[in-house]
């Protein structure tokens, strides 16, 4: 009897662990990785940019080399080679 209860408990326990680990994979999977820029804006977006800092992203996998600015709507991926980007980054601080 005790053995039966024990095995049921173990079974339930392993089911729980199973659920948790699959949830972990989902959370730690690609969705959890910080989204990267897969394309850049070449248009002059100077007016959209807020704040005094920018980030630089290196090309990796499907991510392209980009300068990441903050805008009121979120992050903006900009072309490091665009003149407006060079003008802006010269005035800003890299983080
Ligand atoms: C981009 O636009 C800003 C104003 O919105 C302007 O001051 C700047 O000269 C422009 N830069 C380029 C490279 O066109």
TrEMBL record:
Keywords: Cytokine, Signal
The keyword Nucleotide-binding is assigned to this record: no
Biological process annotations from GO: immune response
SUPFAM superfamilies: Interleukin 8-like chemokines
Signal peptide (UniProt feature, chain positions): 1-21
Membrane-crossing segments per the record: none
GO CC term (a single one): extracellular space
Record-annotated Chemokine interleukin-8-like domain positions: 33-92
SMART domains registered for this protein in UniProt: SCY
CDD domains: Chemokine (cd00169)
MF annotations from Gene Ontology: chemokine activity
PANTHER family in UniProt: SMALL INDUCIBLE CYTOKINE A
Protein name as catalogued: Chemokine interleukin-8-like domain-containing protein
